[in-house]
Design a protein that fits this description.
Blueprint (H helix, E strand, L loop, with lengths): L7 E6 L3 H13 L3 E6 L7 H9 L4 E2 L4 H4 L11 H6 L2 H9 L5 E3 L4 E4 L4 H15 L2 E3 L4 E7 L2 E6 L4 E4 L1 E4 L5 H9 L4 E6 L2 E5 L2 H4 L5 E9 L5 E8 L3 E3 L1 H9 L1 H6 L3 E7 L6 H14 L16 H10 L13 H13 E10 L6 E5 L4 E2 L4 E2 L5 E3 L13 H18 L1
Parallel strand pairs: 1-2, 1-10, 2-6, 10-21
Antiparallel strand pairs: 3-5, 4-5, 7-8, 8-9, 11-18, 12-15, 12-17, 13-14, 13-16, 14-15, 16-17, 19-20
Helix pairs in contact: 1-6, 1-14, 2-6, 11-13
Amino acid sequence: MRDTKKARKAAIIGGGAAGFFAALHLAEIDPHCEVHIFEKSTQLLSKVKVSGGGRCNVTHACFDNRTLVQFYPRGSKQLVAPFKRFSPSDTITWFKERGVLLKTEEDGRMFPITDSSQTIINCFLDEAQRLGVRIHTQQGVSSFIREEDQWNITFNDQSHFVADALLIATGSSELIWNQLKSFGIKIEEPAPSLFTFNVKDMNLHELSGTSVEHTSIKIQGTKLKTEGPLLITHWGMSGPAILKLSAWGALDLKALNYNFTLSVSYLPEENDQSLMDFLKNLRSKESRKQVNSFSPFDAISKRLWNYLLGKSDITQQINWADLSNKDLQRLVDELLHGQYKVNGKSTFKDEFVTCGGVSLDEINFKTYESKKYPGLFFAGEVINVDAVTGGFNFQHAWTSGWIAAEGIKN
């Protein structure tokens, strides 16, 4: 049992969501611990600032832990126990106790009722001041070493800081990962996890802003597939379905160098035969109408319908009566199995996430402490844990920061 009368020092490297949350909780539960945050830039909580289009997607209204972990392509097994200790319900309570109320949107995402990320930032800064957390900006770490039972940290300006506990919450940092590698800590190769797909099709780009509420998409030659809303952009395809697929397929898509064929079903409830029967019936009922006069599917806008006609090599001014069965079959193929050549990716800036980092095998998830080095802790995205978009990555930041603080105290 340590002497609680003697002040200990905790160094938290990284002034982002996980590092800040850990600092606040540690300062609150252990008044004898001197808590320091070191941030390399001038900006604190920069990701919090831009999250959710500047509204900050704090967490997700998913209150069943077994369901919650299914949103994490990497770390789902390890997070079951941590989420029992600090869950989305605990996040809501934590903010409520500090005067920040959250609201739930239809898709389950939760935001401050102010719709401003600055509300979250102000809450953290006010708490840091109240609890005496010492914040150091423009203090980039160049190295750190273990000396007996303490950590000696060297900064870019060659100054030093000695801490009893060191928490790494730097997010995706090659410099930090390389330092940890030198300690014999396994680092999983990083890869972008949330991104959109580039499709070189100018006719598709002209539909920018068009969305389809329910699609089924898959990547040919792999087992990767998902369902959800699809958004067409001026560079290709985005939306929840694409982002989800990019998260689950992060490593596979990197191996493909982001060149692959995407298959899209705009009508996932339909099968080939039922859709063919529907179109044949339409050909009979609307025989004198031009095929481009309306979209026969509520889910597909007229603009998208006309685009799909073009992809099917169907002249837009042709009457339904003049369509052959081969024409209809090509249209069925485009509606249910549309092929899109993806050449590259674009960063989804509001929710940019990287998979990879400190291997899950290196961490004791009861404390988020290194299994090899006592007094060395991790939180947030520096670990090989990532989630789909929707507030799940922030939830892990809060959970890992909270548990790491508990581990440092004990």
